[in-house]
Amino acid sequence: MTIKTFDLNLSTKGFSDIHDVTSQVRARISESGITEGFCHIFVTGSTASVSTMEFEPALVKDIKKKLEDFASEHERSHHSETWGDDNGFSHIRATFMGPGITVPVRNSTPILGTWQQIVVLDHDNRSRNRHVVIQVVGIE
Amino acid sequence: MTIKTFDLNLSTKGFSDIHDVTSQVRARISESGITEGFCHIFVTGSTASVSTMEFEPALVKDIKKKLEDFASEHERSHHSETWGDDNGFSHIRATFMGPGITVPVRNSTPILGTWQQIVVLDHDNRSRNRHVVIQVVGIE
Amino acid sequence: MTIKTFDLNLSTKGFSDIHDVTSQVRARISESGITEGFCHIFVTGSTASVSTMEFEPALVKDIKKKLEDFASEHERSHHSETWGDDNGFSHIRATFMGPGITVPVRNSTPILGTWQQIVVLDHDNRSRNRHVVIQVVGIE
Known about the structure:
homotrimer, alpha+beta, Jelly Rolls, five-stranded antiparallel sheet, three-stranded antiparallel sheet, 4 helices
């Protein structure tokens, strides 16, 4: 077994901006030469998350709305009041959803449903350059 | 180190139908011959999740109720209105909870609490045949 | 590739008591001798979770408050009424957040954001001695 670690930079807009990174993940798996194993996708920072979803515009709106209902950008937080950066809601969303996911790989391809994409969600309250780590682990 | 990939098919009923798959996971770990390592359980598709819980009927009701409070099957969604499949809530639940978990393995056994089972939750609004991937990774 | 499994005991106070375990994880990675790979942090039991956050006191309050809003310690549950242990809310919080996370490792160090710490959240309604499993996997 072997492991290959790749870095991906993403320009994001914040407020749970959602990016489909499936094609970038597929490219790194292909580049790694690993045929069977798994892939871990992890976003550094405390205001972003990784998950899977059917990446289509109507559902993007629904998930952003649900995140706003869950932890509103307008709600007061001790964090925002203490540090003045107004992104307490971003931290709360990120901690609930978690910073990464693992996806199985077979035949050099991630095992995903037909309508299942890998997404990075940036919950911060401003544009960011995000650092995403993609690790591919398995048998060549 | 080695990796073994298994497929598990589950017949589910939807609306956050919860299935205890711990015994199937234990059987694959045993079959794999791996004694120390970890196991990843992943469900394909964009309307299902994997987590752990104490799998007993009262808590199954409580978790289903909380999922209904969080994203109701009756709430309107752009996804449902656009595609007419009425399962926007299913997608939202799945993206929040995530598609998979990893469990450590020692002495050919998953390391779990006494009352902690591995569960697959199908959030869709209809019966499905679900594809679950179980990967066991480690030392024989 | 190799794998090293470590056990960590934590004394917790419950009600989503949050513990920063980043220094303990760094120490186990260092001790493992693994330079490139990943680290999995998993908590056994059905009333605790692992995630990442900026571990500072104001945000600790905010996350505890949001967990209380999401599944209140005062709300009735079938689980509590059936078993009399009054911790239905603890189970619900744990199943939503999940029992573990994976963090990439490079240069013998976890790849994390500057303000991103690894935390264990104990949602139970009493003090516990928690068993956390830290696995380091990769190349020496």
